[in-house]
Amino acid sequence: MKNSSATLREYTQNCLHQMAQCADEPLSTVLTEEDLLNFQQRGTGRVRNYPAEKTLSLFLRQVASEEKSCRKVLIADAADQTALNNMRLTTHNSAYCKARQRLDEHDVKALFQLSGQRFDEASPERWLWHNRRVVLVDGSTLSMPDTSTNQPEYPQPSTQKKRSAFRF
Description:
Layout: H1 5-18, H2 33-41, H3 52-64, H4 70-83, H5 94-102, H6 105-122
């Protein structure tokens, strides 16, 4: 893949459009092109098929889809790229899965905290209910290996029976 600034800007624009942040949208400043380019620049300087913003875009698409598999998101992306007459990447998921692991958790978290803060600031007053913000919680859960590396950051809940988590 060519690592040109035009290609990176295209990935960035695709990511923004995927998050419904077109220039004519009222909440178009939740994340900016500059935010995503800065996010990309924190990664390694090595040329990869999946730069940070492309990986982030695919990951967001994967999380939002009914079918959560890596392969399905790559097939959907390949179909989009074919429709746009763009070069499409392979639908084999090993490179994408490795790229996803390279996303720095703290950088992704910071990016979404920034977007949440901007979203809150950009929300019109008419969205308030009795002059108060309404916060919704969806009750999502996630599952991950109960490794010694993960335990300090993500301990078992106190309500969970000891040694009942799966181990790798």
